[in-house]
Amino acid sequence: MTIKISSAFDAGNIIINDATDPSNIRLAIRKDTNSDFYQWFYFRLSGARDQACNLVIENAGGAAYTGGWEDYRACASYDRETWFRVETSYNNDQLTISHTPELDSIYYAYFAPYSMERHADLIAEVGTHPDVTTSVIGETIEGQTMDCISVGEGNKSIWVIARQHPGESMAEWWMEGFLARLLDDDDPLSRILREKATFHIIPNMNPDGSRHGNLRTNAAGSNLNREWDKATIQSSPEVYYTIEAMNAARPDLCLDVHGDEALPYNFIAASEGIPDYTEKMATNLAGFLEAYKRASPDFQTEVGYPVSAPGTGNLAMCTNWTAQEYDCLAMTLEMPFKDNANLPDEEFGWSPDRCAKLGSAVLDAMMAVVDDL
Question: What pTM was computed for the model?
Fold first, then answer.
């Protein structure tokens, strides 16, 4: 059977340089749309059952975050539901995936993909809940909808957004767990939270980049998390329309969900560097972090980004901009592409199921601070 490699599907990304020898398949990652960023890959290998394959990504050394390749293992799946980890090495600026497929068709990806079809299913499913309102707050450059989910009746306004960087697909897996618990009418904590707060949730901030198989940018080549102080309909409509919606329902809490290429931990980055950081923000942040740690052993506070010095925060970023603009508790949640080094899983690494459980656990942290926002 002839070996075939393809990526002409939702979120697919690979360039085939040479696929004649299964022991030395030569590949490259395509750059993000109108950008030099790249790191996300997702492709299908067919016709290699029981053959020892080495899939060499030749341009890995030029990727956006080469620290992401250290101790990294690629994700693989036969059915695109269960994603397991396979042997991967990084040497001489090349990433090599070494694996012997057991079936005729197998998929490899940087992380478990979250397709736009699955996103559409998610919006449709949550929209059937009697208390949920789904709305389109705007359109992307390519005309995809910016879907927003609203639920709750409280006077506190909580915004949760994900996938400004489309290749960070763990963020939307996290959203599945978060939404499943938030909308569980048999969960008393969820019911109380929805009485205390109104939630506005954007599960995917970057539909165009997600469909294209980009790591960080939208269809215009804009890094959305560097657009908050200057968003325009031409370059970053996704942020522009989100800010319009936030102005109509000013956040008391804003959580922006991401993934980090290099650090094998779950952690929060906050807004300590903004000009008007307050003691109230610091107190609310401390309460949120402690409650999140109690709720999930997968979350920790020992390892993360350096805290920005006062007045040095980048106001082009969502967390800093929203904290400064709305005087609210604003945070960025980062999850690993690799594994959680504190609780490693040899077979699956950091996985969609674990993302969802971490999403579910965040409600405990929100409950801990909602009255003080």
Answer: 0.98
